[in-house]
Amino acid sequence: MYNNLIKLIFDVAPFGFNQASEQLMNFVNKTDDLLGIVQQIGTIPEAIAHDSTEEKLFSKASDAILSRVFQELGLKSAIITGRADTADVVAQSPIHGYSLVADAKVFRMSRTAKNQKDFKVNALSGWRKDADYAVLCSPHFQYPRSTSQIYKQALDNNVALISWEHIVFLIKHKIKEDEAINLAPIWNFSGEHAQNVVISESKKCFIPTYSRFIMNYLWHGQDDFNKLLDDQIEIIKQRGIAECSYWESQKKQILLYSREQAVAELIKSKKIDEKISQIGTFVRRLQNA
User: Which residues have a Cβ under 8 Å from the Cβ of 57 and sit 6 or more positions away?
Assistant: First the structure.
């Protein structure tokens, strides 16, 4: 089903972002293989060009999937569109009354070092407004492993740093809110954990501690989650093979280029014509000022 989602992204991209987004959301809302999609959604396919319409649609699809996940967990959830100063996903518990905002993060395997701006923890906290909690969902193995400013920001602002792998666990074990199960402590973990962390260790990765808390809270052993991580690693390895194969095929095509094709492709990749046009537009604007 994940491959169907990627195919749909390429199929609907020419229709324009708004219409394409609507079709993607319909697909996500109707899919009967949410788990299969969640297991792979954290990785952007290399075949999707950087900063392309397809990349923006993949990001929008990840928002739709996260919203669908909240619904599966027993929450009411929706995607916010048309505003740049707000979270992408909102959710509310009809049983326990709390509300949250959330942001889905996806990354390429080929992406090098990530920094705090990639995770936008402070921004997500600001988008909380009247909501009780703020939740960031990122691939488990893309969170910084040792220290990072994002952990201090999460502790200072009570932003939950959940992973897609945690979500896979919740779906696999059919976790759903009812009168007896309240997921609020999972979203509130950073705020509680902050009370036990000294300032000198506030940038230290607490994802393993968070994982243990989730397992204990849901009456599962850590071995259950470790087994799931092993399974996810195998999925990621297979994705890695596929992504490398894509670039190997691109290399073979490039090696067949004529000199003229190679020069044209280099000019295109450096966006030289666009830069010349932009400079000309800027100068003309000065002349007409």
Answer: 9, 12, 13, 17, 20, 21, 24
